[in-house]
Amino acid sequence: MGENKRRMLAGDWYLPDDPELALESQRRAELCARFNAPGVGDPGERLAVLGQLLGSVGEGVRIRPPFHCDFGYHISIGPRTFVNFGAVFLDAAPVTIGADVQIGPNVQLLTPTHELDPQRRRQGWEKAVPVTIGDNVWLGGGVIVCPGVTIGADSVVGAGSVVTRDLPPGVLAVGNPARVVRSLGRSTD
């Protein structure tokens, strides 16, 4: 393993323009292209591609194409999770998604962050911080989850929200930046 990849995996500053990472990105691009190809009608075929692409895929996971990621092997998805069209999971660090999660269309889970110093940013330095989505979370359409964020179990994030900080379990959060607007109690149906 090269120094740059070791630094990325350790959560340190690294240069993504690296031959070893480029090879892994090429592998990811080929698998994503197979998954996203029009005319792939067999759900088993798509699931097999996900098994090769992602770190782990729970039973009953459904992801609608197109789906895009950085590497794939840093992504772990729990059972019965549904990911709608247009998901982008940038997984330079781990992206962990729990069981029974509902992810709306065009949701972005972003682990990379860039240098604030202009010279280092121009040189291309970045690092990545894990994103964690708890069990039974619902992310509405167009939600963006920023690097390092954890969303607690049973929470709901409203469409178009940008989550810049951790959210506790069992809350409704909306806006940019997302703010908790209320606690979600158990249904009494």
Question: Your description of this structure?
Answer:
The chain contains four helices and 19 strands. Helix 2 (19-36) packs antiparallel against helix 3. The protein has a single domain (3-183), classed as 3 Solenoid (UDP N-Acetylglucosamine Acyltransferase, domain 1), CATH 2.160.10. The chain has helices at residues 3-9, 19-36, 43-53, 118-123; strands at residues 56-57, 62-63, 67-69, 75-77, 82-83, 87-90, 95-97, 102-103, 108-110, 112-114, 126-128, 131-133, 138-139, 144-145, 150-151, 156-157, 162-163, 171-174, 179-183. The model has no long low-confidence stretch (mean pLDDT 94). It is globular, with a radius of gyration of 17 Å. The chain has a seven-stranded mixed beta sheet, with no helix packed on it. The protein has a five-stranded parallel beta sheet with strand order 1-4-7-12-15, with no helix packed on it. The chain is of the alpha/beta class and 189 residues long.
